């Protein structure tokens, strides 16, 4: 079973074979109120792997992606050429990146100045995929190429027939001297992507230590992706790209059973999430989404997509929520015929009347005042697994002492990369900067080589637009 857990801090993906994963519900007991140690999800995942390695036929490998600390990070290219078979894959990657960088665009999908930068970035990604067999097909290379002179970029991309139609809106503006429109289109892509120019991010996203098909039966993996709440606006695009590629790769026939568990869902835009919920079950992929309130989902995903996600999910678990979310949940749990008794007393007699009426099974007021550890919800059943009591109101009891004993035995994550040279000097910054400089130089060389090729080709030389 694969577990994909995304939180403000970490994203966990765990494959296992033919058995349910162990779920640890952690928190403070309402009885004792003792503070518990709070190891990162990466540490929990790593220690559970060490404890349960004997449960796997093929032992999974443990990988970490951490943009803040390259010493504790593996390297992975989310747009590896080997996993991009069609230009639609490039478009999907571009869409995910741009909408994570510009959340306001989610509700404006289809607008000219929203689609233009997405199409431009998609064309650049696919160009890198087909250029020299995808040797330079990485996200950092795409950012650097986008930031080159637009005259050179358009000339290069137009020299490839499969990209010509993608570039037509830009070329039309360019050839008709609609400079303001063209600069607006290009700036819509450059400005948000410029926030992601970081040597550390470039370092992590240009390596190929592992692939993202985490539930591959021959090579299962546990992947932990570290996020930083202070840099959420920057890292969310990279994380969204990793997540979208992972979901695309795991949602296939013949893979290990898997579950996609996403906590704090609104912190990242997950393109195609509604489709994943609807189709993944046939590939034995279960989806679990966690967020604080429906209003968060509506704010970050837009009203239409939020409603689809809310209505497609069959099982609901909820702690204390208030306002509109409590009302929606109360309506979802339905009504039941309830008996009401009233008594009237006056000087002469006492009378009692009994009536029945439909009323909320779990009122919104009750959901708004749930105690910590108390949950309400509804579950779905199958043809051969009927559940009589689908609606529930229950308490989850946490054994604090047992959790303390367990976490006390945890071992720390090992260091992944040692940047120390033979003289004992830490060379991390130098190596990361050298990688950054190498990427920029490679893109400069690509542009020079391609412009030279086009100039020397009689059939393409007309694409070179002479500067006035």
TrEMBL record:
Keywords: Cell membrane, Membrane, Transmembrane, Transmembrane helix. CDD domains: TrwB_TraG_TraD_VirD4. It is found in: Cell membrane. Transmembrane segments: none annotated. The keyword Transmembrane applies. InterPro entries: P-loop_NTPase, T4SS-coupling_protein, TraG-D_C. GO terms for cellular component: plasma membrane. It comes from the Bacteria. Pfam families: TraG-D_C. It is a multi-pass membrane protein. Residues 260-371 form the TraD/TraG TraM recognition site domain. This is Mobilization protein. It comes from Bacteroides caecimuris.
